[in-house]
């Protein structure tokens, strides 16, 4: 297959880190990325080029282009961490096949992306493109963090930003494994849907005395793990309200708070601890057999409907500079970019 | 041996917790304890009574009588967690012998104390009373936390309140095992003595830009463990200045700060974590063979001079209400109570 010389891509405008912490909101992408025609990437040894069919937009992508993620930006390079597409170049038996992938070498918000051959994930034919485009960051994170919950032996866990795509995946896992999820959300309007999905209890931070709601829920369910995508003061308060042995596992920073540790003594006397989760590290440290096994589980769950992808909107690549922000502003569901349009 | 019916003891005036966090200072003991004549404790099954020869005064004792420790007070009971004395009652082959002990059932700031037989630690004849009276809380904590340092594989560790008795024990352990101790102290006057003892570097918080001192020390030594008795904002700042993989191990709360986690993302991207250490839990969870082995090490280190106990003063039990505060106010060294005087 002969590839074109150039492609349309959303490229990063800045190098390195911004030194700011403004959270994952994006009212206007133009300070961070621009739509440009750039050369199609050429695969080196062990690399593959993928013609992108659909790319995901995750909070980590927004953190990244704003220079607020744990990896430095490279000006002129396409953004976008994950997507699905057809392998069009590279020394791999997957040539011509549909794969999900994490774009290690050239981002997915582009007509073509590039990554290591070892990271290509073959997709079942019955897996939809929206499920396939987002099967890595959120679903693999859900599986990996739920492994932590299971290994802890807890009968219950707490998760915040629970109305997010990842939150819903975690609630469904808790439901299916009999480990009671306690969901923390901002708006009361989200509570019923999460209860219907399988949340054993819902704490609404926008309502009166959310900490009293938490005390009641924690007394009933005795959660031991707090999966935290927010990192605000209320999360710290939740952690200190949890029973002995609680672990606060932070994996994202939706808030710009610097939470205070008001009861540090609980770490001593109640065996509590605070740690982080990063999918990239998990993939390096986990038993290698766990990863393909996890992708088989992920695809099976989507195809059978025990997981679903809520789509906030699919924005054509050509319209991202004007259209992406409004899809991201929707309170629920996931945004995608379609590089073929 | 016939025991008297009553004894002189410093008894606690309050039950439970105070709900305050005022730190381990004690200007006046009279709001918390009183000198009284009370019945000598009677041993139940598995318990021993010890005629106390010398009792230690540790920061945890002060936290405890103020109602700010992780265990509830019991009004009318003698205070004092550790000491040395002769076993005078109880079904044990150690009857008549000198033992160090942690007073589980009736405190050491009294002529007689009571604890479980299983917790009696026989003392070598060549171990001095001041070393024996304080061989549990500080030395065993030092051994246990230094096990954490060794198991982490770190080439260096950081400790604050480094001029304390426990701090000096840890510095000597680092020196003797070739793991560079970085000592954090408040006053420049303490620095030379700690360097002479074996500190690879000293950060003086009372001097200009202590965080810059820390950056230089961390760059040179790459510490991975932070042993923290203070829990203030500067400790949090130190933690975030440490290299990847750093662990903040809190074991005390000399400060009343509620430290802010300004860079929570380091837990995700730099594999850092925050945890607590409590000797009581360590003793329950550690391989039981480690404890007698640790006490053999402790006594050997004191007898051979690789550890020394710096004595701030020995206060007669009869004079504690007026004399204890002034000994505790000394900047260095450990306070003791002599119940025989």
TrEMBL record, chains A, B:
InterPro entries: ADH-like_C, ADH-like_N, GroES-like_sf, NAD(P)-bd_dom_sf
Keywords: NADP, Oxidoreductase
GO MF terms held by the record: NADPH binding; oxidoreductase activity, acting on NAD(P)H
Annotated ranges, domain Alcohol dehydrogenase-like N-terminal: 44-122
One Pfam family named in its UniProt record: ADH_zinc_N
Residue ranges of domain Alcohol dehydrogenase-like C-terminal in the record: 166-288
Coiled coil: none
Superkingdom of the organism of origin: Bacteria
Keyword NADP annotated: yes
Keyword NADP tagged: yes
Protein name per UniProt: Oxidoreductase, zinc-binding dehydrogenase family
Lineage: Bacteria, Pseudomonadati, Pseudomonadota, Alphaproteobacteria, Rhodobacterales
């Amino acid at each position: 297959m002969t590839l074109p010389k150039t492609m349309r891509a959303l490229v990063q405008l800045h190098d390195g880190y911004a030194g700011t912490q403004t959270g994952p909101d994006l009212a206007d992408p133009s300070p961070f990325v621009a739509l440009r025609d750039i050369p199609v990437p050429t695969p080196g040894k062990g690399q593959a080029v993928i013609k992108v069919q659909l790319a995901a937009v995750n909070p980590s992508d927004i953190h990244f282009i704003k220079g607020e993620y744990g990896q430095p930006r490279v000006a002129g390079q396409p953004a976008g961490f994950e997507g699905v597409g057809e392998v069009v170049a590279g020394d791999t038996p997957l040539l011509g096949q549909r794969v999900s992938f994490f774009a290690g070498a050239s981002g997915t918000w582009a007509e073509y992306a590039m990554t290591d051959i070892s990271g290509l994930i073959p997709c079942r034919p019955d897996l939809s493109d929206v499920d396939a485009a987002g099967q890595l960051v959120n679903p693999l994170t859900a599986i990996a963090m739920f492994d932590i919950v299971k290994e802890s032996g807890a009968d219950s866990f707490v998760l915040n930003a629970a109305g997010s795509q990842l939150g819903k995946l975690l609630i469904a896992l808790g439901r299916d494994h009999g480990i009671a999820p306690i969901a923390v959300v901002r708006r009361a309007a989200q509570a019923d849907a999460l209860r219907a999905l399988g949340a054993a209890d819902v704490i609404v931070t926008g309502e009166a005395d959310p900490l009293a709601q938490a005390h009641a829920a924690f007394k009933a369910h005795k959660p031991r793990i707090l999966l935290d995508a927010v990192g605000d003061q209320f999360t710290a308060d939740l952690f200190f309200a949890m029973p002995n042995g609680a672990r606060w596992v932070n994996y994202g920073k939706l808030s710009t708070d610097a939470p205070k540790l008001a009861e540090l003594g609980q770490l001593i006397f109640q065996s509590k601890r605070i740690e982080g989760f990063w999918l990239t590290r998990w993939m390096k440290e986990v038993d290698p057999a766990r990863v393909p096994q996890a992708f088989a589980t992920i695809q099976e769950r989507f195809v059978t409907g025990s997981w679903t992808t809520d789509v906030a909107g699919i924005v054509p690549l050509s319209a991202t500079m004007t259209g992406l922000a409004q899809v991201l502003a929707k309170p629920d569901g996931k945004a995608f970019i379609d590089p073929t349009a």
